[in-house]
Specification:
139 residues; alpha/beta; Transcription Regulator spoIIAA; two-stranded parallel ribbon; 26% strand; globular
Length: 139
């Protein structure tokens, strides 16, 4: 069953400079980038600090909607991939832009080389399919 996420089923939300990170009532972390940004290592550090607070010591499924991202620095990409195993049991990324398609290929490669594939990453053109996949993984 497809269940859209709305403000009503997000329990906890932290807003950083460039993201909104929330925890759904189903235990899926929702990460959205509401505006086009050039993301730096400092942004990645701030976002993972917020993610740490949302996850509260648990590894959870994570949904990412990169929105109208402009760029993600090399340092930020590597930082995210290195630290993702601390928080993620799986990551689903919504891919709707050229930037997101390029980023997705890079993240798959980094996850395989740095993390040795410790958790699955999948890319979707539909939020509904991404969330259904995360629900199946979350059991």
């Amino acid at each position: 069953m497809v269940k859209e996420f709305s403000n009503e089923n997000i329990k906890k939300v932290i807003q950083t400079r460039n993201t909104k990170i929330g925890l759904s009532d189903e235990g899926i972390v929702m990460v959205t980038y509401p505006q086009g940004i050039d993301e730096t290592l400092e942004d990645a550090e701030e976002n993972l600090n917020a993610l740490d607070k949302i996850c509260n010591g648990k590894k959870l499924p994570i949904f990412i909607d990169p929105g109208p991202h402009k760029s993600l620095s090399r340092e930020a990409r590597i930082y995210y991939v290195k630290h993702s195993p601390e928080y993620a049991i799986a990551v689903a990324v919504l891919v709707k832009s050229t930037f997101a398609k390029v980023l997705s290929a890079f993240l798959i490669t980094l996850n395989k080389t740095i993390n040795k594939g410790k958790f699955p990453i999948q890319f979707f053109t539909s939020q509904e399919k991404a969330l259904d996949w995360l629900r199946r993984i979350n059991g």
